[in-house]
Amino acid sequence: MSQDIRVTVWNEFRHERNDEEIGKTYPDGIHGAIAEGLNAIDGITARTATLDEPEHGLTEEVLANTDVLTWWGHMAHREVDEAIVDRVQKRVWEGMGLIVLHSGHHSKVFKGLMGSPANLHWREAGERERLWVVNPGHPIAKGLPAYFELEYEEMYGEPFTVPEPLETVFVSWFQGGEVFRSGLTYRRGAGNIFYFRPGHETYPTYHDANVGQVLRNAVNWAYQGDRHAHLMKAPNTPVAEAIEAIEERGAKLSAADHAGEVKS
Which DSSP string do the residues of the chain spell out, in sequence order? Predict the structure, then answer.
């Protein structure tokens, strides 16, 4: 690899500033803890962006220089500007990787890319979560044991109203008895997407070594290297450039009609 994978770690950064106990758990914010873990290994360079920065920290320039974006959100999904949502989704279609974390399942970005409400059952009781590696050969599971446990977590339970994933990497069991598909992969356009369930803000989940391993693995899996901006275009192929010789016949629409343009 000629250069490090460029990661932007996005976070609302509201809970940590509004709640003293959460601030003690994540003094540099959830984004700070995630970025620190990613920057601890060779081959990844992580920067951070937060909701209250101009353009939510996700300017055209920032996203153009982002290979993989991680997204954590919870209490302020509605405050994310639609223009930024469109910008992020476009970059995913072009090939930017996206890792959606915990309550980011209800973000505008994730629901838009899934085309679904992404609803689920939940309970906040500080119960034990056991994550089973159900796809041990997957790159995101590299270096992990057969299962690992988080002593305190929020419960998410099925049904999870998302499209059928390409792959399921983790399935969680909770102390109260529920199960949940906790690690799912998708592809939208040229972009790889990974949803990872753990990460409730009141618990030290992002300080856990196994969680850190998952995130590092996921960044490497989601990374594709080159951009695929050509996929955002719908060019016309003239008759003369057809692979096999053809004769033009029958009525046809104008180029503007095909492009969805409105005639004056």
Answer: --S-EEEEEEE---HHHH-HHHHHH-TTHHHHHHHHHHHTSTTEEEEEEETTSGGGG--HHHHHT-SEEEEE-STTGGGS-HHHHHHHHHHHHHT-EEEEEGGGGGSHHHHHHHTS----EEEEEEEEEEEEES-TTSGGGTT--SEEEEEEEEEEES---SPPPSEEEEEEEETTS-EEEEEEEEEETTEEEEEE----TTS-GGG-HHHHHHHHHHHHHH---S--GGGG------GGG-SS-----S----HHHHTTPPP-
Structure confidence by residue, pLDDT tens digits, 220-244:
999 987 667 677 778 888 999 999 9
Contact 228, 190 (CB under 8 A): yes
- Please tell me the distance from the alpha carbon of residue 142 to that of residue 94, in angstroms, as a whole number: 27
Give yes or no for residue 262 having a pLDDT over 50.
no
Is pTM beyond 0.85 here?
Answer: yes
Q: Which two tokens stand for residue 68?
A: 């993989």
Q: Tally the residues of the chain.
A: 264
Tell the residue number behind the tokens 């620190």, with chain if given: 36
**Angstrom distance (rounded) from CA 113 to CA 214:** 22
pLDDT the model gives residue 232: 73
Instruction: Please write the tens of the pLDDT for every residue from 156-169.
Output: 999 999 999 999 99
CATH 3.40.50.880 fits 5-230, yes or no: yes
The residues spanned by each domain of the chain are 5-230
Q: Number of C-alpha atoms within 13 angstroms, CB side, residue 49?
A: 22
Do 168 and 134 meet the contact criterion of CB atoms below 8 Å apart? Answer: yes
Share of the chain above pLDDT 70, in %: 94
